[in-house]
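Reading a protein record of the kind used here takes only a little practice. Each token is a code from a learned vocabulary of local backbone shapes. With that in mind, consider the following protein and its fold in token form:
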Amino acid sequence: MASTDWRQSIGTLLGFLLILSPATALERYPSLTDDHVNDLARVLAPSEQATLRTDLRNFRARTGIQVMLVTLPSYRDYTSHSTFETYCTNLFNHHGIGDRYRNDGVMVLLALRDRQVRIEMGKGYDRSWDSRASNIIYSQMVPQFRENNYRGGLQRGIDALLRELELPTQVSPAPSLGGFWVLLATLATGGAVFGVYQAWVNRKPKCSRCNSQRVTPLVPTPALLEEHLTPAQRLEDSLGSVKYPLFQCQDCHHITVVAHNQIFSSYSRCPRCQNKTVQTTYRTLREATTYSEGEREMTKECKFCNYISVETHIIPRERYTSSDYDSGSSSSDGGSSSGGGASGSW
């Protein structure tokens, strides 16, 4: 009999400890199937959800910022120990809202029965956004929620949030008068240099036979080019790497050919035939990641002598950012939050 009582006492104690064990205190997170609107508390009508979803998608396409609305009947349905603010941060990080590298996602969470709302900011935002989020909550959302106008409060709050997010984060100072004159002088100098270059390029040469300066430009017909240019020169002229204008002497009627090297041409000089007929192309063999280097193949091919050179170059690894080290708390490749934002209740 005593042995039975002892076993019952041990069983009761183990059951009590099991109830208090951390395993039973684990949080659960709702499945968020949409990138922008997840109305699990059924606050919005289907048409209102569709309109808001379109607005948020258009905003993301315009700015790159993901804003997500989540409504829950009660956040306490998913956790037994976290505060509202802690659960919001954990939910944000679990689903990885926003861009992984910029950490610019924003989540608006409404817990209906708890009468609480929060704007959770990604950790890419500085702490000045806490007061901005609080102002939006208490000026646009809470007054409507107190009147049980949840649809209106959410719409007004999100509209104000999007306007705030689109404001420039930094206003560039107006250029000073001195800066204006420096810019003007730079443009004038550049224009003058280009004008000198163009004048040099378009200058009339002397006749290569009699040295006369009485020469006139000729229209480069195919027949003239065929007669006076070599095959390599004709190819360079057609590729645009070197231009060959023709001039005829008015005294001896000799035709002079002038070579004008095109400095902005994409073609380079061939190491074999020395003509400016080499085209360079690139092909990525393996993309670089934050964990490994990539490879890129560079091919140089001469259009005249068929010279080919193929080289492989290393692409450096992508840089790590702070989000790469802190993303362990998120179950996705998205952004994360360090708890910034603001909450409100009514």
